[in-house]
Amino acid sequence: MYFWSTKKLAHALATDTMSNRSKLIHFIACICLFLVMPVMRTLSLNKHQEIGGHWAGALAIVDLVILLLGILYCYALNKRGDGKAFIERFILLSFPSIIRSVVLSFSLGMAIGLVEGMLRLQSNPGMLKAQLTGISIGCLLMYFLWVSSGLDMIAKVRTTEQGHGDGN
What is the pTM of this model? Predict the structure, then answer.
């Protein structure tokens, strides 16, 4: 199972060396993460009651725009390659990308908390909103960067294989 390496997973997908059983396990794990992530985010935001109202609505709109543009960008990358199995590739590459995003989010949150604690900074609601928003948007962008880099690698491997196959 590919928990972290999108590069190794992309290579396995590009070379068709990943078994259907392994794909199924990745798919189920990814769906579980998709179901858990909104709950984790809601619990995190509810912990800080001052985040809500217009701010939460604006964040939801920004997230939606990033999601739509990210998916369309990934689709275009896949189409530039062989154009096959986009949904399968996207979902399977999402698993290690989500794991990375969660680790990045927790790491950044912990780092900010440690710095504030060491400097004995008084946490104000405006700064907290900005920090959580920055972490959220940054992690979502990184998620799409990791998925798209895997799709780009698949496209390159497939294009190279097709180029060698035509010349022989």
Answer: 0.81
